Amino acid sequence: MSLDGSGDEHFGFPAVGEDGGDDDQVSDHEPSDLEFDLCAAVHTSNGLSLLASGQSEPSDTDNCLSLPLAEPTAGSNSSPSSESQSPANASFQHDSSMAVTPVSKDTKRRRLFEKCAQWESMSPEKLEKPNPKVFLSNPCFQLYKNLPRDQKMKVVTRMRQKKFRILDNLKKGEQIIYHGKTYSWPKQPDEEEAFKASVFIALFFDLAACPTAATEERGFAMDRLLVLQSSGVLTLSGKHLEEQVLRQQSILMTYQGAWGLLVDIKPPASMTLEHLTQLVKMHVPAKKMFEQFLDHFQNLIATNKIKQFVVAQEICGTTWSTDSEVRVHFHAWIKKGPGFTVQLEDLCWLGSAPYVNQSALEFFGGRGSRSATASYSGAFYLQVDKIGAVRQQGTVMPFTGYHVKDYWITTMLTSQKITFDTARSLYVQCLVRAENNVRQLDYVERMTLDMLAARDKEAAEADILKSEVAFKSIPEVEAWRMQFSTVRSRYLFLVLDGPSRTGKTRFAYSLSPPPTSEMASPTTPSLSSPPGSRQHVYYADCSGGLPDLRNFRRKQHRILVLDELHPKNAVLLKKIMQASNDEAIMGASPTMQHAYRVNSYQTMIVVTTNTWASGCEKMPIFDVDWLKANSVYVRVTSPLWKQ
User: Fold this and answer.
1) 420, part of any domain
2) DSSP-based three-state secondary structure for 563
3) Are 22 and 141 in contact (CB under 8 A)?
4) Domain boundary residue among 215, 236, 257?
5) Distance CA 404, CA 515 (A)
6) Distance of CA 402 to CAs 246, 247, 373, 418, 434, Å?
């Protein structure tokens, strides 16, 4: 169960009665004017009771929103048609001297809030464990449940904001006191979820018992505590520790403690998690620790406490990456059967109480499902060859002991807990939609590797830029650049011809287009690249012939570098080389199956080569004339960077 309050109006939990809640809940409806009149009349300054049935003022534990409506009394001044009125439409009768002056609905609601705020019969000692009967009879709880949806959402939003402020203050190093206990942010990241659960449960108890708190917030807190109890996941003990009430048939737990720190293993900080896992597998104390943990659950089976179990030992990757410390923790999945009972003290091991990991079951869609297979999602979570998993063992095996859902595999791959190879093997064993899943997996793997390669290329480019020196200023190049500051129908391209290792390509990368009317337009996307990035440059290798421009985007790439483009191929690309507003068709064939369109308007096109002059000598004179008329030729004889 998550306490982060994300997702719906119930602050991260279902409402009472929606998921195994109490059947005695009050229905969500707008309180009628008559109900407000009753509540206001019951609690007047002189203590008058205007109930037609002659009841005395109700006690604090009465349901002030559900008072019974009495039948008209004999001899009352009712109209002739009052005998035919149904009890639902009957109104109570009273003396004219005792008449209640009609008030607005807002005033009635304010009076009801004041009545609920004065109600206080629960001390913190009585709130050690949620009491459904006490909460359900509390006007604060009833008021919250009867709020209209829009007002209830305001209460939930206000509580969610309170939660975020509490977390922010704790992360800043502050300490808070809730329900008699001081809380400070934990040092271990693995303890954060359990810590947040404890803080918010203590907050709910304080709100429920605080007479000065807002009435709606008190009702909200009571509703949350009832949901926690009715869900069968956890309640609070007298010392405010989470007790795992195992009403579910299966549960996934996490064990952490000081025993998990392996101080005698000191690998280099550069060691990968995969290599560290192999090192811990050969570590004798870690193996003995796992055997003791395994024996503990085997004893639970021998004493008929549980029916099945799976245990696993894993390395804490966060601790290793941040503190370079080798720490292991344990997971345990247990399944009960008819007649099997287990308590919290039975599950404690080496002084560590288990933390119920409901988020993992919700991740698989197992919690709350009526499917028998879904209850094994926790076992599958531990038995998969996850990244950082040291060893695992259990009384049931996947595929043969229970059916595996293919979306379980997808979920673990999405959370980066397994590799692509592991997922591919599991999809094949799963059989269901195996072909489609493997095909999708291959596509995702290719795209992932391409994105990683692009990310590495950007990082390498940033490192190169750090060591790169300034380039020379060439008058011909500067004059060529300035043509892009005006709007024209076509533009000249630049040719840098010279020997290798003179910095032609890097010089082309360093160029930047001057501002144009189009670039200054408010509707044009920003073309600025982050520092150390050359995202505005599109590089195309033309040593094998024509360039591949499928990924060229005119709005993103302002400079097009055609490396080693032969002059005869430049003639074939006239529409592109002139940077006109006409579209060029690339990849043309008789079937046009692989054809695509390219628009290079106002793109700075730079050709870097060492064979331009020699290539032009073997071309027809009319092609050479076209190249001279549409290009700026610069002969490079020395390095282009400043010495």
Assistant:
1) yes
2) strand
3) no
4) 236
5) 59
6) 22, 21, 7, 20, 18
Report the alpha-carbon distance of residue 24 to residue 8 in Å, rounded: 23
Asked whether residue 215 falls in the same domain as residue 66, the answer is: yes
The label of the residue with tokens 């073309």 reads 527
CB 441 within 8 A of CB 423: yes
- Mark whether 215 and 345 lie in a shared domain: no
Residue 454 domain boundaries = 414-467
Same domain flag for 514 and 595: yes
305 and 217 within one domain: no
What DSSP string describes 446-495? HHHHHHHHHHHHHHHHHHHHHHPPPBPP-HHHHHHHHGGGS--S---EEE
- In angstroms, the CA 122 to CA 208 distance is 9
Per the domain annotation, does 404 fall within a domain? no
Determine the Cα–Cα distance for residues 107 and 537; give it in Å rounded to an integer: 68
How many structural domains compose the chain? 4
Same domain assignment for residues 384 and 420:
no
pLDDT digits (tens, 9 = 90+) for 428-474: 999 999 999 999 999 999 999 999 998 898 888 888 888 888 888 99
pLDDT per residue over 204-261, tens digit each? Answer: 888 888 888 888 888 888 888 877 665 444 443 333 334 444 556 788 888 988 899 9
Tokens (6 digits) for 71: 């039948």
Between CA 513 and CA 516 the distance in angstroms is 8
Strands 537-541 and 493-497: unpaired
Is this model's pTM higher than 0.70 or not?
no
Q: How far apart are CA 592 and CA 71, in angstroms?
A: 86
Residue 406 lies in a domain: no
Q: Count H helices, E strands: the chain?
A: 22, 16
What phi and psi values does residue 555 have, to the nearest 5 degrees? -70, -25
Residue 6 within any structural domain of the chain: no
